[in-house]
Amino acid sequence: MTARIGVVTFPGSLDDRDTQRAIRLAGAEPVALWHKDKDLKQVDAVVLCGGFSYGDYLRAGAIARFSPVMEPLLEQARAGLPVLGICNGFQILTEAHLLPGTMLRNDHLHFICRDQKLRVENAETAWTTDYSAGQEIHIPLKNNDGQYVADERTLDELEAEGRVAFRYLDFNPNGSQRDIAGVTNAAGNVVGLMPHPEHAVEPLIGTGRTDGLPFFTSILKKLVNA
């Protein structure tokens, strides 16, 4: 049976179709989920994609966090459902307290769009097993509110528990504390990051590399082998 991975579309989502294509290229079946759905349609995993849900009013992700689809998602994520938050999806996961910390406006106060070098810090989550710890990859980045912040105690806990999933290399594009580009929850089923792996799955687009595809092949292998 083909693994089914849901992709949630909120008002203002931009990258839902790109994410669905990445899932399809990895060999899984993408399932469109609407923000008003209260049923996850029995999917095996969920991706919250990038964009500007609800126009980023109040704070990025603050309104989307209360969308009807988030109620079953929160419940199932806490029970082990794999969830990936990309850019705005990462912001939503922090607002929903599935991941620690929060996202602020970039420290230079400008939108940024560039190919970004990252280091994989944790290759044991549901979404990163096709990487190697310490591997350096290039993933497109585009955000306005991408500065990851948390109190020092939380940052120390993330470091000590190996929950920093990705770190910016060579250049910190938004002022994120400790160069953090992505984090995971303690169980490893929920991961969030600001760069966009769905834009790095084919040589013809994005960075011209396929460094983002292992996100989607990792979860497919986990689901198939479960």
Automatic annotation (TrEMBL):
Its annotated compartments are: Cytoplasm
Q: Which reaction does it catalyse?
A: L-glutamine + H2O = L-glutamate + NH4(+); N(2)-formyl-N(1)-(5-phospho-beta-D-ribosyl)glycinamide + L-glutamine + ATP + H2O = 2-formamido-N(1)-(5-O-phospho-beta-D-ribosyl)acetamidine + L-glutamate + ADP + phosphate + H(+)
List, alphabetically, the InterPro entries matched: Class_I_gatase-like, PRibForGlyAmidine_synth_PurQ
Q: Would you kindly state one Gene Ontology biological process term found in this protein's UniProt entry?
A: 'de novo' IMP biosynthetic process
Q: Name one Pfam family in it.
A: GATase_5
Oligomer status and interactors:
Part of the FGAM synthase complex composed of 1 PurL, 1 PurQ and 2 PurS subunits.
User: What is the protein named?
Assistant: Phosphoribosylformylglycinamidine synthase subunit PurQ
Q: Which organism is it from?
A: Streptomyces tuirus
